[in-house]
Amino acid sequence: MGRADIGIWLIGARGGVASTAAVGLCALGRGLCGDAGLVSRLPEFAPLEPADWGRFVVAGHEIRHVPLAGEAMRLATESRAVAAELVRQCEDDLERIDARIRPGTIYKAGTAIERLAGPDVPRGETPREAVRRIQRDFARFVETEKLAHLIVLNVASTEPPVDRSAIPATWKELEPLLDRPEACPLPASSLYAVAALEQGHSYVNFTPSLGSAPAAIDELAQAAKTRHMGCDGKTGETLLKSVLAPMFRRRNLGVMSWVGHNIFGNLDSQVLDNPANKAAKVASKDRLVGEILGYHPQTLVSIEYVQSLGDWKTAWNHIHFQGFLGTPMALQLIWQGCDSLLAAPLVLDLVRFTEVAWRRGHVGQMTFLASFFKSPYGVAEHDFTLQYQMLEAWAAEGAAR
Fold first, then answer.
1. Is 31 domain-assigned?
2. Which residues have C-beta within 8 Å of that of residue 133, sequence separation ≥ 6?
3. CA distance linking residue 4 with residue 145, whole number of Å
4. Domain range for 332
5. Above 50 in pLDDT, residue 1?
6. Span 99-152, pLDDT tens digits
7. Are both 309 and 323 inside the same structural domain?
8. pTM score
9. Count of structural domains within the chain
10. Contacts of 72 (CB under 8 A, 6+ apart)
11. Has residue 274 got a pLDDT over 90?
């Protein structure tokens, strides 16, 4: 008898990242594409024996009432990000996934996200009621598909920032607030995290939203002997910063200013057009340079919604630095890429590495996954090379067992 399947539960299951990941998973399982962009396919991670693509079963939560296959095809026809024929070859799989998608929650998700919600999304739930409903969806999926483990991964749109000082430090203090909507500070992303971790599922936050960041929720994960990690997938401009900033530091070239301007036109950028939602994303993208350099030059990160660009993102960076004899110099670069195609392979990597961590019995924050995130939980190091070495060390440790 073969090993039991692993469940992937996507929050924001019909969005660009989720639909691209679903197409990618199908294409990989059917041998329709190569493994470019997949870190878990590198030879140094082969001894981990990550789960085969065919072992994963996908479901999720979504607040919009749109067909998953249609969203995937829109990436092909409007953004021209994937081949339409590839989407057609995966259509049956996408329809099966679509049938397993349930209405999500919009509790304290912000007005920009709330406006996207369809009529089947419950309004007026208490946080506790939302958590219990989400948990019933998880339990039904695990039972129906006879899953060995469930990995819940948040790829939904970015929520507005949360005042973390209002969040109790312990789970004992936070848990009763789930019954008090007027007092509970947790947004939707954190309710999903609580629902998953309380049942012993793994949780990964690919967004800048609060998710499982609070210490009280980490305490819950450890009590339930499960694992979590986040936040904000490091896919493009910030990935470049995490590689280039160490170069300036190690060559003792003083950075005076670092300015980045991002334009794209997908649903995520539309949500980020709201100043409250944008604030959370900009904060995540902007803190890295100063952390790596050890000082804080003038920095600016802007994100603008340009509808015609669809899923294609362009990021301009201007780095003004001081060279020998005080001579100012500049490095300018342009990063152009398909937002969902940059993110989707990382989502699949995170699922595979999390499955390995589950098999190993890892509990708490998965800090060895820091290289995948702009603001990794529990990790102060932002140098990409040093973060990647953490992943390699974790893999080598497992191979040596």
1. yes
2. 105, 122, 125
3. 9
4. 237-338
5. no
6. 999 999 999 999 989 999 999 999 989 999 999 999 999 999 999 999 999 999
7. yes
8. 0.94
9. 2
10. 19, 20, 22, 23, 82, 87, 90, 94
11. no
